UniProtKB/TrEMBL annotation:
The keyword Transferase applies. Its cofactor is thiamine diphosphate. This is Transketolase. Belongs to the transketolase family. InterPro entries: THDP-binding, Transketolase_CS, Transketolase_N. Residues 16-264 form the Transketolase N-terminal domain. Keywords: Metal-binding, Thiamine pyrophosphate, Transferase. GO terms for molecular function: magnesium ion binding; transferase activity. Pfam families: Transketolase_N.
Length: 276
């Protein structure tokens, strides 16, 4: 089981995740760029500082479980798993090739991926099932589910939130990637979510809000002991397309196929940011 001892710094891991994502989006099929870039610190912190997992034994029975409900962030998940040692980073080059396991949305053929995802609004209900299962097994395990903010417009999310609170699942942590954009525009002009923290609190959840690009704030929120008998939600305020100025905070970054010049510009911007 991995620990945080001698783990690489989360911020450095996040920087490498972003470079992997940009390289994948420069491939022949492109990829979901913006929502993967906003996830970098969230996934880096989870895999280097929080999750009890074993890259050499991904199915280990006492592992924590991470579900990526926002399956369009799959490129960031692939990069995070590669950086964590679940498979060699060179395998990322298989993305979008005919017959490859590395598709636009993740599925369990890839080491470290627990469940297929992509159809939004289902991840939290699956996480409730894991949490109940852990309780029935009397297992000291936790389930983390990473969600997009756009998918919070799905009614199934709030049904699952209600059940999680009613069942007092304090082994369940939801992380909301609150980049405030969905494929067709701003969440607050399409189907407003605010006051989002109050909404989760009204459903009986313990709410924590952080800068989703601060590994320190994420680590503090994700490692703080849960409130007894209450599931936890971490609302991580992020920027879609983070790290690439020419696509940051723009809906058009949702899916991109970067040309040669765009690819070079994006990498240069990331490296300037990492050096500053």
């Amino acid at each position: 089981m991995t620990t945080t001892i001698d783990a690489p710094p989360a911020a450095g891991t996040a920087a490498r995740i972003r470079e992997h994502v940009v390289n994948l989006c420069a491939g022949p099929e492109g990829g979901h760029l913006g929502g993967s870039m906003s996830l970098a610190e969230i996934l880096a912190t989870l895999y280097t500082r929080v999750l009890r997992v074993d890259p050499l034994d991904p199915a280990r029975p006492d592992r924590d479980v991470l579900l990526l409900s926002k399956g369009h962030g799959g490129l960031a998940l692939y990069a995070a798993l590669a950086e964590a040692g679940f498979f060699p980073p060179e395998r990322l080059g298989e993305y979008a090739r005919p017959g490859s396991e590395f598709m636009a949305h993740p599925h369990p053929e890839i080491p470290g991926v627990e469940m297929p995802s992509g159809s939004l609004g289902h991840g939290l209900a699956l996480a409730v099932g894991f949490g109940l299962g852990f309780r029935l097994d009397q297992a000291d395990r936790r389930c983390f589910v990473v969600m997009g903010d756009g998918e919070l417009q799905e009614g199934s999310v709030w049904e699952a939130a209600s059940v999680a609170a009613a069942q007092r699942l304090d082994n369940l942590v939801a992380v909301v990637d609150r980049n405030r954009l969905q494929i067709t525009g701003a969440t607050e002009t399409i189907d407003a979510l605010e006051p989002l923290a109050d909404r989760w609190s009204a459903f009986g959840w313990s709410v924590r809000q952080v800068d989703g690009h601060s590994c320190e704030e994420l680590e503090a929120a994700l490692t703080e002991p849960p409130a007894p008998g209450r599931p936890t939600v971490v609302i991580a305020h992020t920027v879609k397309g983070k790290g690439i100025p020419f696509v940051e905070d723009q809906p058009r970054s949702h899916y991109a196929k970067l040309g040669e010049r765009q690819h070079a510009r994006a990498l240069a911007a990331l490296r300037r940011g990492a050096a500053s």
